[in-house]
Known about the structure:
The complex is a heterodimer. Chain A folds into two domains: about 1-55, no CATH class; about 65-295, MetI-like fold. Chain A is about 70% helix and about 0% strand. Chain A has helices at about 1-30, 45-50, 55-60, 65-100, 100-115, 120-130, 135-145, 160-185, 190-195, 200-225, 235-240, 245-250, 250-260, 265-295. In chain A, helix 13 packs antiparallel against helix 14. By secondary structure, chain B is mainly alpha-helical. Chain B has three domains: about 5-185 and about 370-415, 3-Layer(aba) Sandwich (D-Maltodextrin-Binding Protein, domain 2), CATH 3.40.190.10; about 190-365 and about 495-559, 3-Layer(aba) Sandwich (D-Maltodextrin-Binding Protein, domain 2), CATH 3.40.190; about 425-495, no CATH class. Chain B has a three-stranded antiparallel sheet. In chain B, helix 16 (about 425-440) crosses helix 19. Chain B is globular and about 80 Å long.
Amino acid sequence: MTNLRFRRQFPYHLMILPGLLFILIYNYVPMTGIVMAFERFVPSKGMYLSPWVGWKNFEFMLNMPGIYQVIWNTVFIALMKIIAGVVVPVVITLLLYEAKSRWFKSSVQTIVYFPHFLSWIILGGIFVDILSPSTGMLNEFLGWFGIKPIYFLGDVNWFPFTLVGTETWKEFGYGTIVYLAALTGINPTLYEAATMDGAGRFKQAVHVTLPGLLPMIVLMTILSLGNVLNAGFDQVFNLYSAQVYRSGDIIDTLVYRIGMEDANYGVATAVGLFKSVVSFVMISVSYGLAYRFTSYRIF
Amino acid sequence: MKVMNRKKWLAIGLTGAMAFSLVACSGNEKTEQSSASASSQPTSTESSESVAADPMGKYDPPIEITAVRPITEGTKFKEGESIDNNNWSKAYQESLGIKIKYNWTIATAQYDQKLNIAIASDDLPDVMEVNAAQLKRLVEDDQLEDLSSLYDQYAAPFTKEVLSQDGGNALKSGTFDGKQFALPKMGSGLGQTHVLWIRTDWLKKLQLSEPKTIDDVLKIAEAFTKQDPDGNKKDDTRGLGINKDIWGFYAAMEGFFNGFHAYPNVWVKDESGKLAYGSIQPQMKNALQKLQELYKAGQIDKEFGTKDASKVNEEANAGKLGMFYGYFWNSGWLQDGKLTNPEMEWTPYPLPSIDDQPAKAQVPFAINTYYVVKKGAKHPEASIKMLNLVLENIYGATANPEAYNVDKDGIAIFEYALLYGEAPRKNLDAHLNVMDALTAKDDSKLTAEEKGYYSNIMAYQGGDNQFWGSDKMYGEKGSLSVIEGYFKNQSLMNDEFFGAPTQTMIDNNATLQKLQLETFTRIIMGDSIDKFDEYVKKWKQLGGDEITKELNEWALAQK
């Protein structure tokens, strides 16, 4: 019986083959490049003939002066971004959901989504102007309230928060769309029942809308936890400067300087592998936790 | 159920096997190729003697040379032409009897990678271009032909002149243990020296004189900041421009430091004749101190730390900036400002000095490409002959630049030449020739390229501000006349290290660069100047001492 079904379905299974091949060739085969992390990579000798150095590249990385500061910067910035990246879109979604006018809703949605399409190369230049303490728009605005100009991009203490703020501003529109989409999946009868029970708009939002969004919130959080060592290369690279290295230099910018500018491929790969392993562990743990607390599975 | 499972695994296994065989196939191909080329390697060196040591002698019967090469993105060919059929391939064949067979050609961006594969699989052509690191590797692996005696015999006098115009370092950088393994692709370090660009219309307005010393520079910076040079009654102008990286080609500080006899980021000789790193010498401290004072006084942008070169340029073009250090071609970046405000006038000056010793402009090492010949090539001297022909046909006494350099339609014919080089003095000579032509009102002696500059300057003098930038480079008081002055007075400081980076350099560069940039930026912004001494100490600890030792060993090996 099963045999027959399988035979009938076999051609369909075969259709997956090109996709599988594609993933195998472009996603799995290149993973062999990981060996570079254990070599003193010499381009002319290639991946297979370069001398093997074992854990030396990792030792080198961990002995680099200031490396712990860099790791801390990365984790701090990334975690702040993850938190802001969940909270802000959810709040905006709840607010938008309450808005009556369709026209208002969709225009806000479009406007906040737009920055997602701008690259950090462009935004970097714009933010240097907007955030300037002497001529910037934002500080002028803050000045109306008697707040002294803040050097957002040049002050060691402010810089990480500037990163989080600008990143959230750029990306929250994208998150909002995802959550708004999830809202359409909530059964309208729940709202009717809540109204019957005498729940107002606020109670409805807390007891119906929010629980309805929870699986999506968990999913998005889990997916973003894998980014705990990704503080956003494009953004930091375009906004940071020597004066904020102390709080703004992250693993990726360091790897860029080692790998691209100094052609020290072995060490750069080792750092990359280190990042991947940490991300893998983080995803696995948060996945387990998510299942435990919300009984929600992605896979 | 079990059956299905087994089949499923079979399918997956199959998929895997196919993918694997795909990879394996491509691998096989490579090894076959390389073994084929290995077996067909030349066995004898015949006939070259019969031509005698004539730098331009023709091979008869013609010979064939194998080569690989990058092709610059955007290279155009005339109707019916290709890399195998063009003015240069014809010239090689007709004048020298050399036919070039390209094993492969590839876009410049991918060349290094592809060549690395060729090196790894021992599939080298007779002639190829390599970078410094590849050169070192190939020499260490004994894969290159020693060209020393051939160069003496076959290089034409003009070739020898061009290749040693930089004082001989270019040739030395291709020499290992006294054996010359490479012909450097010449370029100009002089084009990367700093000049001081000043708004001379402001200078006149405030009745200041031209800067001779660093003190003058400081006075001008102060006046430009405080005396409202643009006359708009607002405190919105600044004296001296710096970009956030401190170093570079525009609004950078190398020129300022040179005025203090400090040479950041290059290797200089100390009193004992040993190589020393310019950035850690005591003269740096004085320059940093002065920059700190300028910053405190608001003559440097308080926010320079976040502004890159193009941001600073926006301010210069908007009329907010009065002075900066940069390369000779910076007037091109100022062209927009000149067009919006024709009153705006920038003039380049030689670097002012802190004392009565003239400032020396630091010159980075300009060679990053070399031409090499595979060990055992049948006609190793052919590459030298081809270089003779290229330099002669483009720049020599019998040059025909329209046929071999850039033609009437602006097609870059020189891109087709297998070996190439630019005389380090090319731009300077162009400036001098254009000046001569301007006095004589006759452009007939100019090359096609120079004629372009000549007509631009004529147009500018006729009132067309569109060509102001050209005049500021090649014209009478242009930046190249400033650099010509450096050259004539020998007020230049060459980077004394011109080899491939050592392992310690590669390992520690990121850390040391970060340390330097962070320390210097913070000092300028007000950190204690004593931080400089701390920086020197740390630099030495974090690999600097080791690098200094390695480079001095390298320097000894050069002698």
